[in-house]
Amino acid sequence: MKLHGENNLETFSLEFEENIRKVNACGVEWTNQESICCLLLAMPKSLETVTTILESMPSKELTVDIAKTRLRSEVERNRSKKYK
User: Fold this and answer.
1) Taxonomically, which superkingdom (predicted)?
2) What is the pTM of this model?
3) pLDDT (tens digit, 9 = 90+) per residue, 14-53?
4) How far apart are the C-alpha atoms of 29 and 47, rounded to whole Å?
């Protein structure tokens, strides 16, 4: 699963969470850290800076929700740059 472009981050996030639920429903123990790792690996090059920042955060402080919030913020920031 890979995000192509930034325009469909919300759709990607919903599909990503659904896939995590499916994995958990199969009885596989999926940790928060594994979820974050998969999420960040799926991001496009345009989000590389924020992805690197998130990867360097202490794992105890980083959740999937925090990662998605930061990614959304970066997408919005990139969009606002395009329209200036």
Assistant:
1) Eukaryota
2) 0.85
3) 999 999 999 999 999 889 999 999 999 999 998 999 999 9
4) 28
Tokens of 16: 């990503």
Q: Longest C-alpha distance within the chain, in Å? A: 48
* 1 within some domain: no
Do the domain assignments include residue 3? Answer: no
Burial letters for 34-69: b for 16+ Cβ neighbours within 10 Å, e otherwise? ebbebbbeebeeebeebbeebeeeeeeebebeebbe
Q: Are 20 and 35 in contact (CB under 8 A)?
A: yes
pLDDT grade for 5, boundaries at 50, 70 and 90 = confident
Start-to-end CA span in the chain (Å): 32
pLDDT value of position 29: 84
